[in-house]
Description:
By secondary structure, the protein is of the alpha+beta class. It has 18 helices and 27 strands.
Amino acid sequence: MRATALPLFHPPAVSPLLSPACPQATRTGRQSATARCTCGGRTPSPARRPSPCTTWSYTAIKYANYVALGSKHRNGWHLLTYIEYYEECRRAAKAFLKIQGSLKHLKAIVQYKEEIRTRLQNLYSVGPHREGRVGAVAQGLRPQAQGSPSPNHHHREPHTTPSPTASLQWRGFLDLADGVSEDTLDRVIDSQKPNQCCALVYSLSATGPPKAMMLSHDNITWTTVATAQRLSYRCPPEEQEVLVSYLPLSYMGAQLFDMWVSISVAGALYFAQPDALRGSLIDTLREVKPTLFHGVPWVWDRLLDNLKTSQLSSTPFRRRIDQWAMWLGLKTNRKRMLRQTHAPLCFGLAKRLTFNQARRFLGLHHCRQYFNLGLGLSRATLDYFLSLNMPIFELYGLSESTGIHTLSRQQDFRLLSCGKSLPSTHTKTQKEDEEGIGDIYIWGRNVFMGYLDDEENTQAKIDARGWLHTGDLGFMDPDEFLYVVGNARDIITLSSGEKINPNPIEERVKRHIPIVRYVMLVGQDAPYLCALLTLKCQINTDTGEPRNALTSEAVAFCRQLRSQATRLSDIVYDGDPVVLEFISQGIDAANAEVVSSSAKIIKWAILRTDFSIAGGELGATTKLKRAMVARIYQAEIESLYEEDEEEY
């Protein structure tokens, strides 16, 4: 679980704002630190840099009557205009100030998507509402005893601080604002400086304690403006951008696009239903008709499943038309990518017959740009949407880089590349191997202030010259396009000492075995590599868990192999010989492409279920949690190494 904490009163920590004039500003994780430039350069004047609050107020005033937010209720969509949104935010801010005035030890406000089922130390609950529970994190709070009453008042003990209580519904919480003047809030807003901490973004790791990343006001405003300009977002009255939010806003990439960029261009943001990732997202897309869409690899794969299911249910004549149109679309867009051709005359016919219908089926027929947040989108998926004239532009960034650092767009686009760096930022690779793959370092005003109260890790993450060590591996081509091929944490070290990057091998297996959804290599400190495979299964829309039934695409592929399998159990438990032989041949084909014999997959196993968020194998943004998968399937992994290993 990830959580975003917003300080009530911004700490005096000051970010050494990176700009082209100040490449050597020092950083520290201490809240009381002050920026110090070690290169003699000058950073831009703070007075000339707007804060998120000033940007927000400007948008609210200029575009007061445009739709800002939409959330669906039983009786339809509830809409807020920008001026209503702004006024409600101010009321919430004043309510937080009222709470902070009563609880001097209060440090931050945290919103949890899930219900808080257990009492958490130092948590003061300010009430459940339809979007989740809001809690206040404080130092020195004594947890309330289980079953203790006092739902409507603060229980106090002599010489102690208040205990946590469940107290207010959301509207009741907003009513606390009545006791705080507008001038009081304005003084707090005016006291904020661009190079002070604006937000703390927490990331929970499976391998260590959570880290609080400090993002300054300038980090957020500069990255927002640079991204919106680079991607040519439109503003009213010319056209209002329409977006759909379905990812956790504690994920910095989603927060940047859904909140900050949307506000900066006065876009209309519609919130998907809580079960969006269980299947309802496509219904929201069809209803809202977004003009821009940001997907993650898991979502793009599910949209692909829906499209293929629709195509397989059509008539043979219709399928032949689609095959021709998609062949033309892929051929044309690959040439367009290299600026080598204009669309042929029959391209318009392909659009009317196939491309427009596919986009309308997904609810993306008003979309001008399609983006992918997160790594792991396969070449097959990219090619499929490219063949439908829907090029997916990949983005790259970390929470430490305010969510984004490189981006692709129509003018700068290469398949499998994450695009080029934002203006006035830099990217380089260091410690490159014989294949030219090295550690990715990034530099710019989007680089965060540091980890809260963690100077040691801050200095390890950002070197003396201001370069952020991402931990990712990749390379840059002669045209400055960045390609990310893995992460240093994912590297597998065999017992022989040889280091293997699993990501390229996993993608190769998926390319050779189309019915495979996930591939995860294992073999840390082992004599050889093994692979865990999952097959493409349908999703239970009520629970989000994978079904036993294979997807229509997987079933159709089994029919091509002359297999009658329709369920995962037909293959795993009944041992369908045709499918198993095909998978074995696919593994052999992937092994034939590796240079080192140590990079070959010696054994593999098909798991009894596909990976999912509900199952714990995927994170909230559908990223594969390797450490968690290794724990969940420890028995299956151990069984792969049970036999005598001397022959290897």
